[in-house]
User: What shape does this take?
Amino acid sequence: MHTTNPTPVRYVYAFADGSRELTALLGGKGAGLAEMTRLGLPVPPGFTLTTEACRRYLATGAEPVELGVEVARALAELERAMGRTLGGGDDPLLVSVRSGARYSMPGMMETILDVGLNDTTVTALARTTGQDRFAWDSYRRLLQMFGHTVMGVDRALFAPALTRHQRAHGTGRDATGFPELVEELKAIIRGETGEDFPQDPAEQLQRAIRAVFTSWNGERARVYRGRHRIPDDLGTAVTVQAMVFGNLGEHSGAGVAFTRDPATGAPGAYGDYLANAQGEDVVAGARDTRPLEALRESVPRAFRELEAHLRTLERHYQDLCDVEFTVERGRLWILQTRVGQRTAEAAFRVAYDLCDEKALTEDEALSRVDGAALTRLLFPRFASSAVGVPLARGVPASPGAAVGAAVFDSAAAVRHARAGRRTVLVRRETSPDDLPGMIAAEAVLTLRGGKTSHAAVVARGLGKVCVCGAESLVIDPAARTLTAHTGVVVREGDTISVDGTAGTVHLGALPTADSTVRQSLISGDRADPLASAVHRALDHADDVSRLEVRANADTPQDAALARRLGARGIGLCRTEHMFLGARRELVEAMVLAADEADRRRALDALLPLQSRDFTGILQAMDGLPVTIRLLDPPLHEFLPDLTDLSTRVASSAHPSERDRELLAAVSRLHERNPMLGLRGVRLGLTVPGLVATQVRAIGQAVARRLSDGGSPRAEIMIPLIATYEELRATRELAERTLAEVAAETSRPLRLPIGTMIELPRAALTAGELAQAADFFSFGTNDLTQTTWGLSRDDAEASFLPQYLDQGLMTVSPFESLDEEGVGRLVTLAVREGRAARSRLQTGVCGEHGGDPRSVHFFHRAGLDYVSCSPFRIPAARLEAGRAALDSRAPIPESR
Assistant: This one.
């Protein structure tokens, strides 16, 4: 008997051995470095520890046995390539240790630079570079990073020592005072941890790797993954790379470059550069950067080389690329590349510019944009006529208009958001620890940094408005104030407005104007490049999609707007909205009716009003389906509040007869849990004449439109069905009523009659219900409530936010459909319903119909349409097309 030895797991890859096809294993950073190495770009050599190694470490608390051997072998190869040794006394090799997950998580995990420095190698580094100050400053950086990231020292504890050093010695070019500063930092580490900073470079490397692995489960990383729906079980890769230095003088520097503007999508290299700086100085925003053109002025050869490499990378990745680079004494090194974070505007412009350049097909361009980005483009902007003189100007890092109370720390933004108040998070510069506040705030304003700073990159990823580098403002953290150069003081809680498109900040709340993209969708105007890109994406989505997108609309005005936004009909017309306002008295009269004659008079008064409403909606949607839901909410929603009415009657010496009758009726109808009580079909079957009146109004409206030469396509939907008997009885009543109207008007009225599936029992008995239904429409709002056993309003106001914060849920089931629970009911109902009635039409009319993620599920489940509010129609159309592409063969990454 022969046994096959399993292929040994490989945990370490040299950059030259990897490729972007191994992104899941090497992470985005490791795969990018491997790909650039294969392309021949000037990448400092190094190696990557795989995500599998991370998962093993996190699961067991120890590295796999083989990992140490592979790291030692890879390090030896790196030392040979560089001609230097980690810890070597003459010309020491230093390395960086960085995280690199499969999906970009900028700043959410750890980085340790200058690993390999100690009390001996610092002097060797000073000797080989000829720069004492540089060597000791690098050691200082390592102590801070290693002390905080690896040994758990609060980074704030290092600040007083750094401040004292700077006051005593300034920013001169010599190393005066640095050895003393280093000793003070080591003493802080020793005092806080009880151990010395490790002098052995091999130990530094091992502990740094472990710290990066562990940072996968750090709080800010978990919060970021929850926000972006990144699975928790992927783990991070770790890259170990030879250090190159941008802080070796004026012909050295570091920067971040984009192959196109990440804010607007405009073509041409764009980025930030800092002379005599390390890369961390650029992305941290701690120093104000200069535009990329500064590199052309100081090191023109490096600038030309960078431009060529940017073109190479964009052609290779066929996308906007984000590139980190260092110039070391005139020599250019490329340290990282990834597909760049961008605004919604840039996403559309870049995709369709690349399409015009023949780099992408129409399918590929559509796959590069999504409904969430399109939704952000539909948000309002500030009215230009009301902007006025700004409080300050900065870098427009992420566009849009936002208004909120100024807050000066992340915790305050979170606290205000939980209380339902809008805020603007104001910081000198953000750090990864600010992520919860950035999520909670409407906008982010920083005094330092540019379009490639931490604040800018994360805000673009979150879809938040952001202005960076508003350097004329001054923050007083103790007083919690923000002071403008004019002397105007903004205190915490004062309202400010942030314009992320113009890069301005304004005192008070500015009025907003409609989105130009939304206006273009309504008018059809495609002149603007952004509008043209959006229209092209939607046109192609409509061409390839199988799912139709309909609207939830209750008035002719909403119906007309929905049609202009691309709706292919109305999937939900709520008749209860027609009983509000002045008509409420007619409902009260129906409830208070002493006998059948009084009830009939009330219903007869409602009939022409509803008929007129339906006629207007059918006219606005002429030729397209209009699904009209019979009255659904319980009657108490149209009557006075029981407590208020009881108080009024009790406090009056002579209450009116009407108030007494109304109190008796409201008391009779009062339910402890009305959402599960007398509503929907139950109300229609127990209030004589109610169903017939509504169906008659629908029939009359259809007949009137036919007489006027229209093409009405009304459908009748019966809500809250739980049993076949309820559906059969209501359908028979509706058909008799339609036959009567047809006879009276001499118009054929064969309207489809279906039901909402909004109760688990209805989904579980769908095969039986389909025998009496022409269509199913899933009311996923109520189906979620009844499946989960919770009230949406109560849950979202009480425990759901805590569940999301604690990671017990990644998303509210009312925001995105619960595919495992509610989704299984939908799939079951579609399958069993069509088994009983092969031509059964199915759709969804809950607001999940406008959620991008849920639209993809509905496509896979085989539904015919989704329906959502008019505002969400463009995004739903886009996602319906993307869902169709997803169901085809995968689109190749390169052509």
